[in-house]
Amino acid sequence: LYRDWIGIRPEDLSEANRGELEHDHSLAAVHRAELNLGLQLKGLPPTSRILTLRDVYEYEAAYGPFVQESRRGLWLYAVPVLIVSLVGITLLTLSNSGSRNPLSEGGFLSDEIAIRTPTMVGYPDAVSISIGAHQASGARALPQGATLRGFESAILTIHVAGTGFLSLYDLDESSLVYPVTPEPWFVLEGSWQIGEDSPLLFPRSDFSSSRGFLAALCEEPVVVIDYSLLRETLNEKCKIGEVNVRWESAR
Amino acid sequence: MGNALRMVGIEKVTEESSDLLLAESFLAGNDVAFNWLFDRYIEQATSFAWRLCVDPVVADRVVMEAFARLRCRGWKLHGSFRLHLFSVCHNLSVAANKAPSIEVEAPAFGGASIGAHSLGGENVEQARIERALAKLPVQARSVLLLYYAHGLSPKEVARIVDVRPHQILSQIAGSRHLLRNGLKGEI
User: Fold this and answer.
1) What is the rounded distance in angstroms from the CA atom of residue B175 to the CA atom of residue A118?
2) C-beta of residue A187 within 8 angstroms of C-beta of residue A164
3) Contact B77/B24 with Cβ under 8 angstroms?
4) Which of B:13-42 have CB within 8 Å of A?
């Protein structure tokens, strides 16, 4: 275990550090050795020649004066910026003076425009999960609604429209399946097979012939504490996709 | 703060006054206070700069420029005078180390020929440490000297070498590790 406080001066040690040194004699020995090494620097002699004030005066006379530049008149820099901004705003105002907002116009197309505008392509299906079947001889795609054979394992692929933090939950076991590390998984639009290079395989449970999975694409990382409230927790800031993987009853 | 400074008159400070009083008195116009601060810290500043710069001519210039800058009164006291002095010395030394082509032809001030002196490590072990120290990166040298040789607090060292306070213990440990490795190569 790396301890960055080893070798620091006694007055800089915390109570916790002192406690640890008292209980661990080998650690205390290392600490003393490191501290001694550091303190050898304190014993180094001073330089053999010391400068005088006269040296400083003469240096100042030769290279000075070292007066800090005053910062008066800084506001003058703002004048050209202000002028350029005003000219830009004026030009924009003049160039847009004859333009019209299409949605504010009447006419037979206005209703159609109003209806179409808020509809974003792919928004209702922002997150979806597709299933593949894996067995010793290889993997096969599974048509929608088809069941896996008892000996096959499921491979899940999540399709995402948009960006955000993606997570996958097992609804039957009430657990987070992916990501397996504490770091949130940020994705851009696309498709991701769970497990990437070595896909995670989801075999048939001994107790049930189906397993439910839920994928959530969230604006920010979400920590689920109570899995009985999973959907309620995620619904606030997440887009959700679910799938129920079903196996044939015989294994 | 201006009014508070003016209250520190020349008659109120002596050679034994605290750094803070002397610095405030100097900033209020008392040049004698600066002379006392100079006498108090010239040895520490010179040792620090010599070990950072290695080249004594450059180091002397660093120290002279540091005190010349402080003498111009164009600064405000944030923390102690010593902290301010070491900050200026550190920054000038780092700049001098980054620019090896810095003009080192220094005039012989005060009748003494600069460059004819050495660090005083007469002891064999001390000479070994001096050599190992001189081979460290300037930042590591500065961290070790400020903390162990000059007794600054970790927080003050962090402020001078411009690292975040929570990283300074790692910097000290890492610099000491480099020194220990360097000593293995110094017989």
Assistant:
1) 60
2) yes
3) yes
4) 35, 38, 42
Does the pLDDT value for residue B4 go beyond 60? no
Please name the residue that has the structure tokens 């800089």. A12
Q: How confident is the model at residue B14 (pLDDT cuts 50, 70, 90)?
A: confident
**B20 and B34 Cβ atoms separated by less than 8 Å:** no
| Nearest of A161, A167, A160 to residue A184 by alpha carbon | A167
Strand partners, A77: none
* Contact (CB<8Å) A41/B149: yes
- This model of the complex carries an ipTM of 0.81
Contact A50 B147 (CB under 8 A): no
Which of B27, B57, B67 best tests the A interface by mutation, with the highest count of A CBs <10 A?
B67
Across the interface, of B43, B72, B122, the residue whose CB is closest to A66 is: B72
pLDDT, tens digit (0-9, with 9 covering 90-100), for A150-200: 888 888 888 888 777 888 998 888 888 888 776 677 777 778 788 766 778
pLDDT recorded at residue A101: 55
